[in-house]
């Protein structure tokens, strides 16, 4: 059965990158500060670069040079982004501070590797990230949950956690139902309720990066692509490359830092086979990609070029589905105007290595990782990181 929402009525339309619904009424409270936002004396990164860390993706589609009077531009920029109920009853209640944005903000970010030939109910979430923003609203943390973590999925018993998305998407519930069941599973496991969520189609990221031109990625260890090969010098999916009947040359990501085109950056962020720490290295590489996109969008007047700005709007619309917890997106933007792309801190679960469960047959979250999620719930993550510096990612 589809997972139903208790916070808001479920959408009646199918979830899709092009689908849109009007913004839902805010659950309570006023815009932080109680009135129109004032122009900041010190210029910071463009507004959409700040919004990036809220949704964990590059939505940086408008300039923050003059926040006052930019509502029309913000409305235009967000018009291409599908908004759906992705949280169900895993959203924060009013008692947990869900009625306003004055306190800490917790977002669930789900990365899916969806391709056109795949059915909507046959997709798993291979990237599961919790984004925590403390009540000070001046910092953001990305914490990845390993895809193979053993978890109790409501209604489906104990399975790998990335199966929750697939289970929830069945019986016509689609990506909306998949995200709701994933959020419910994580809440049951960690105790964290969410203010919002995003489904990121990593295939759509290629268009965003291509619009940016490239992103700077540092490859920590050489790895052969498990997914792509060159045919006549052109990168192709292996399945498509085989159909050509021509010679296939493996795509190899060499160690070192370089500017990568969209296809290369995306392919590198997908790799886990052949890496020393497997999925843990992939988690850090995906976090690195998000941060690199945020940085690139603030360079060279990218957000003040109308042509490039319009291209970013369209690309983001193809890559993202959002849930702001019933809070108008404009309010979320104003709340996050103090957070910049450089304020992203990437954290590791399980020390960045496989952690076996009690039987030694499956993966589990370590006691330290569970303490980290408790610190998120209590908005004490900065103190936890200070006391446990080994949780910091080794990626830049």
Automatic annotation (TrEMBL):
| InterPro entries (alphabetical) | LytR/CpsA/Psr_CW_biosynth (IPR050922), LytR_CpsA_psr (IPR004474)
Residue ranges occupied by any Cell envelope-related transcriptional attenuator domain in the UniProt entry = 124-297
Mind telling me which residue stretches traverse the membrane in this protein?
Answer: 47-68
The yes or no answer to whether the keyword Membrane is present is: yes
Region feature Disordered, mapped onto this chain: 1-43
Which of UniProt's keywords are assigned here? Membrane, Transmembrane, Transmembrane helix
Which domain of life does the UniProt lineage start with?
Answer: Bacteria
- Homology family: Belongs to the LytR/CpsA/Psr (LCP) family.
What protein does this entry describe?
LCP family protein
């Amino acid at each position: 059965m589809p997972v139903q929402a208790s916070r808001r009525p479920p959408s009646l339309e199918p979830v899709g990158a092009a689908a849109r619904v009007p913004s839902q009424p805010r659950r309570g409270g006023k815009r932080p500060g109680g009135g129109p936002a004032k122009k900041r004396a010190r210029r910071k990164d463009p507004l959409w670069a700040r919004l990036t860390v809220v949704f964990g993706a590059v939505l940086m589609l408008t300039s923050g040079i003059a926040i006052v009077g930019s509502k029309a531009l913000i409305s235009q920029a967000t018009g291409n982004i599908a908004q759906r109920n992705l949280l169900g009853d895993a959203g924060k209640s009013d008692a947990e501070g869900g009625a306003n944005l004055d306190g800490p903000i917790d977002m669930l970010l789900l990365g899916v590797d969806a391709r056109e030939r795949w059915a909507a109910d046959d997709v798993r979430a291979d990237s599961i990230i919790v984004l925590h923003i403390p009540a000070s609203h001046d910092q953001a943390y990305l914490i990845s949950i390993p895809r193979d973590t053993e978890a109790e999925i409501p209604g489906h018993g104990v399975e790998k956690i990335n199966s929750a998305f697939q289970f929830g998407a069945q019986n016509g519930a689609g990506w909306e139902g998949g995200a709701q069941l994933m959020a419910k599973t994580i809440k049951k496991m960690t105790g964290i309720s969410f203010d919002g969520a995003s489904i990121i189609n990593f295939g759509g990221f290629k268009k965003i990066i291509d619009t940016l031109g490239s992103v700077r990625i540092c490859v920590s260890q050489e790895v052969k692509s498990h997914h792509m090969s060159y045919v006549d010098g052109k990168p192709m999916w292996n399945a498509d490359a085989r159909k050509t009947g021509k010679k296939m040359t493996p795509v190899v990501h060499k160690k070192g830092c370089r500017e990568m085109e969209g296809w290369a950056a995306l392919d590198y962020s997908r790799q886990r086979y052949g890496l020393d720490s497997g999925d843990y290295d992939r988690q850090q590489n995906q976090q690195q990609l998000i941060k690199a996109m945020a940085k690139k969008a603030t360079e060279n007047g990218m957000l003040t070029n109308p042509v490039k700005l319009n291209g970013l709007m369209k690309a983001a619309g193809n890559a993202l589905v959002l849930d702001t917890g019933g809070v108008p997106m404009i309010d979320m933007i104003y709340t996050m105007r103090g957070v910049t792309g450089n304020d992203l801190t990437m954290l590791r679960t399980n020390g960045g290595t496989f952690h076996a469960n009690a039987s030694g047959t499956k993966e589990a979250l370590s006691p330290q990782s569970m303490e980290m999620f408790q610190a998120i719930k209590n908005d004490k993550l900065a103190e936890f990181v200070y006391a446990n510096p080994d949780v910091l990612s080794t990626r830049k």
